[in-house]
Structure formats: C-alpha cells, structure tokens
Specification:
The complex is a heterodimer of chains A (about 270) and B (about 280). Chain A is α/β, with parallel strands linked by helices and about 270 residues long. Chain A is about 50% helix and about 5% strand. The longest helix of chain A has 23 residues. Helices cover about 30% and strands about 30% of the residues of chain B. Classes of the chains: A alpha/beta (about 270), B alpha/beta (about 280).
Chain lengths: ~270, ~280
C-alpha cells in the first residue's frame, strides 16, 4: 500500500491544474477543517494553482472545534492561500429551533450540507471549482454525508486510502499537530471515525485494499489473518453505501437513457 | 533516418483542434528534418469517446483532414490515430501510415480492451489483420495499444518481416508504488525490450499524456533497437517531442548476431495452431 509520494504529488497537482484549465477556471475552493484530508488537498491545490488562486472556507459550528479552526487558519497562512471563516451556527440553529432533534447524526448531516451550500455559493461568487476532500476509505465505506462533505466538482483525493494520505501529508510538510490528530468527521465533539466505525484505519485500509484493489476473495482475506466479523462489516458498509457513489438511478423506459446508455465523456471537447 | 514521437494530449472529441495540433507538430518536425513523425492512438479524436465515436468518425478516402495530412506526407511520413468509418455504421479504432502523399496502410485495432475501465468493444468494430507493408524506410507493421500486449500479434509482424514495428497507444497509468512512473509503464517497456530483441526489429512506441475523465495517460514513449536496447525515451506524464536518429543497418547487424528470423518456422506454428483450434470443444 506504500505510495511513492513525489510521484503521487505530481499526478494530483497535474490533475488539479488540468481539470481547472479544461473548464477555464483559475481558482480552486475548498472547505478547510483543520483535519488531515482537507489540509492535504489545500497543500496540493496551493502547489498546483499558485497559493493566490486557492480559497479556503473555514466553517465551524460555534466554538466546539476552536483548536481545529486555529490550525486550519495557521495552515492557510503558512500556505499563503486566501481564507474566510464563516460560523454556520445561525443557519443551523434556526433550522433546529423549528425542527428540534437530539439525533447527533441529523445535526451533523445538516451542518455538512450547510457547509456544502456555502461552498457552492462561493464557487459561483469566486468563479472557482470546488475541490473535494473525501478519501478512498471514506468513499468506499460511505462514511460521509451525501450532498454534504461528499459534494464537489473534482476530487483529487478519491483514490487514496486514509493511511496513504497520511504518508502524503508528511511528504507535503503538513504540521505534525494535524497529522497526528485522531481522525474525526467533526459532526459532534468527541466523535472519532475509528470509534464510530469500530475498527482502526490501518485495519480498515488493509481489508479494503485486499477487497477492492486486489479483488481477493473474502475467504482468503480471513485466512490471511483478519477477523470474519471485521471483513463482513466492511463488506456490508460498501454494499449499503453504493447509492452515495452514484448519480440517482433512473428507470429506463426510452431508447436512450441517462445513466444507462446515454454515454458521453465528462471531458467532451476539452 | 530521423524518427519523431509526438507525445501529446489531444482534445477529446474535437477534430478541428486536434487537426491543428497535428499540423503544429508536422511543422516542428519538418524544421528538424524528421523522416517519420508518429502520433499516439486516436490522436485526431482523443480516447474516451464513448457515444461520440460516430460523431468523430471519418471516411478514409473523402475526408478533408485526412486529405490535408496526405498532402503533408509529401514532406515527411506520418502515423496517426483516428476513428474510421470503414463500412457504413461500422467504426474502427484505426492507425494510418501516410507517405509521399499516399495512404500506405491502415491498421484497425484487433484487440479491443473491454474489461475493468476499458469499454472499446462496446463502441468499435474489430480489425482482423496484422499486416506488414513496405515504406520508404523498409518493411513496417503497426499495432494499436492493447494489440501490442498480444505476443501472437507481435509474432505475426515478425513472421511478416516487419523491420520497424510501430505501436501507437493511449495507455492510462495504474499503480503508484513505482519510482517515477506508473507500474503499468514497466509493462510496456518490458514488452518493447522483448519484442525488439527477439524480432530483431526497431520497436517504436508512442503513448499520449493528459487526463480524460480522470484517466491519466502515462506517456513514457520509447524506441528500442533491434538488439533490444533502449535508444530513446520520452518523459513520463508530461508532453514531449522526442526526435531520434535511427540506423536501419542495425537490423542487419542484429540478424547477423542472432538467427531468429532465418530460423523461424511459421509453417510449424501454423500447423500447430490449426491442431489446437481443431481440438476446441464445441
């Protein structure tokens, strides 16, 4: 699973650069949380587009993650990228005051979609494309909010597992404080990915790598030393989140149908 | 003779822009007195065409782009890739060799990759031959990308007496553990080394670069000598224009050292293949 970091950096900066220029954009926009993934994305974008063309939105909910906000701000300053802090508390609170809930996931999803809505607004204001920050681990497990943090124009990180991103982060010189932080979706205080999924990233990524990249049969993965319950859990997470990785399904009733046999390239004419 | 490889990134589905790109490289090559200029697979159209295949398909004999390239080939020989409408409604992933104002040969891709990320079999008709043809420089044979990964196809060009094997490619890279290139680049290089060495022929591989729908074409075009030695290499991932002088006498020198060609037994292979096919189960 080890990656060659300079080579991957070159691929991803080329990708960001090419995709933006194909669609005649100069600027990249992203949500910066102070976590590992968005920090890596910001750093790659700063290298690919020149720092002045990267715009980071730091969007905390009140004061619960004030350390993250500080680190995000520090990183943006160190990279020389533009940034803006927008507190999403008023928009989120007014909604839940009308539709109260104690469900943390509902609240977290609403916050993720609030951030998405701001990102898309700034995408239009700044004429920039939104750079996604979901990694391959999250995407495969469906560990993200559909139309929330998963929403973007292009996603440079989508084919790198979390553990590979950690490698890349070190190579890119992301501060240790960010790299050593316990990964969290940041939906509520004290939430951690590993606690919620019930497995640590090293194990998750190894199982995913065998299942997805190597296409190894379940039996062989278990025989190589992984617990059956862990492998089953991961398979079921993949299975139940396919909808998050696809466009909405359309019933085919005509001769040529979007999503079935209307097959055009994304980069048509570019 | 002087060979040039245009390691370009074509515009997907835009014939006009790609034609201009070809003309630009032809001018560059002419200035450098290039004898043979090679473009990658589907250089006139881009690769990931899907349903656009029929929109960019060209009839070989009547198309103005091809006619202009034919005219350009009065000054230097050209190899390029395009979608060909050979029969009405049948589209081929084709490579043309133009020289002295004429089309010397068109190869239609035989092995259309249709697995995993590839879906060529869905959109193209399949070519049916690997043909050696004569050029101003000697006998040549062409293959398109996946064709070259069939050692049977390579053998047909060897048996047909190709002295120059030209492979045009749009090969996306996969695998990121490598030092400075995708793991799949090594696959093309090992095939290049092997086939050139055991065919005692020049092996010229022209790949493309750039992203299309997230697929990253890996570049790394190369030329191997008839003794299996790397003669020239383009950069990985970046656009490049590789110009290399090659000496066709090297073919004779290689055949003096190694008697692969003299001792080849195509009739034995043919008969053995017939027996294998005869034994197929119904």
């Amino acid at each position: 699973m080890k990656i060659n970091e300079p080579f991957v950096e070159k691929i991803l900066t080329t990708f960001i650069n090419e995709e933006l220029s194909k669609f005649q954009y100069k600027k990249g926009i992203l949500g910066l949380s102070g976590g590992l993934d968005s920090s890596v994305c910001a750093s790659l974008a700063a290298k690919a587009l020149k720092p002045g063309n990267v715009f980071a939105l730091i969007m905390p909910y009140g004061k619960i993650f004030s350390d993250d906000v500080k680190e995000a701000q520090k990183l943006a300053q160190a990279l020389g990228i533009k940034f803006k802090i927008i507190d999403i508390t008023p928009m989120v609170d007014i909604y839940f005051s009308n539709h109260p809930t104690e469900d943390r996931i509902l609240k977290g999803n609403k916050m993720a979609r609030e951030r998405m809505s701001i990102l898309y607004d700034f995408s239009a204001r700044e004429k920039g494309l939104i750079l996604g920050t979901s990694n391959k681990t999250e995407l495969l497990l469906g560990y993200g909010t559909i139309h929330g943090d998963m929403a973007c124009a292009i996603n440079p990180l989508g084919d790198l597992y979390k553990t590979q991103l950690k490698q890349l982060a070190k190579h890119l010189g992301i501060p240790e404080k960010i790299r050593k932080k316990t990964p969290s979706a940041g939906l509520w205080a004290g939430q951690t990915d590993e606690k919620e999924i019930g497995l640590d990233y090293n194990k998750i990524d190894k199982i995913l790598f065998h299942l997805v990249d190597k296409r190894m049969p379940k039996k062989e993965i278990i025989a190589s030393g992984f617990k059956k319950t862990d492998v089953d859990k991961i398979i079921s997470l993949i299975k139940n989140s396919e909808f998050k990785r696809k466009l909405p399904i359309i019933p085919k009733i005509s001769a040529r149908t979007i999503g079935h046999d209307f097959l055009l390239p994304y980069d048509w004419g570019k | 003779m002087k060979v040039a490889l245009a390691q370009i990134s074509p515009h997907l589905g835009d014939l006009e822009k790609n034609f201009e790109l070809h003309i630009k490289y032809i001018k560059k090559a002419k200035k450098k007195n290039v004898d043979l200029l090679i473009f990658p697979e589907l250089s006139l159209t881009g690769y990931t065409l899907k349903d656009l295949v029929e929109e960019v398909a060209l009839p070989l004999e009547t198309n103005t782009f091809i006619n202009q390239l034919k005219t350009a080939s009065c000054d230097l020989s050209l190899v390029f890739g395009f979608v060909e409408e050979k029969e009405r409604g049948l589209y081929y992933n084709s490579a043309a060799f133009l020289a002295e104002g004429k089309i010397l040969h068109v190869h239609r891709k035989v092995f259309l990759p249709t697995f995993g990320m590839f879906e060529e079999g869905k959109f193209y008709a399949q070519g049916k031959n690997f043909h050696t043809f004569s050029t101003p420089f000697g006998n040549a044979g062409m293959m398109i990308c996946r064709d070259f990964l069939s050692y049977g196809a390579c053998y047909l060009l060897f048996a047909g007496d190709s002295e120059i094997i030209i492979v045009i490619s749009a090969a996306p890279g996969r695998g990121i553990t490598g030092k400075e290139s995708y793991e799949t680049s090594r696959m093309w290089e090992s095939m290049g080394e092997t086939i050139s060495r055991f065919s005692n022929a020049f092996l010229i591989y022209c790949n493309r670069v750039g992203f299309e729908d997230g697929k990253h074409f890996a570049g790394g075009s190369f030329i191997y000598s008839p003794l299996g030695q790397l003669v020239a290499k383009a950069s990985y991932l970046d656009k490049d224009f590789l110009i290399q002088e090659i000496n066709l006498n090297d073919i004779r020198e290689a055949r003096k050292k190694w008697s692969y060609k003299r001792d080849d037994k195509p009739e034995v292979i043919l008969e053995a293949l017939k027996r294998i096919i005869k034994n197929y189960e119904d």
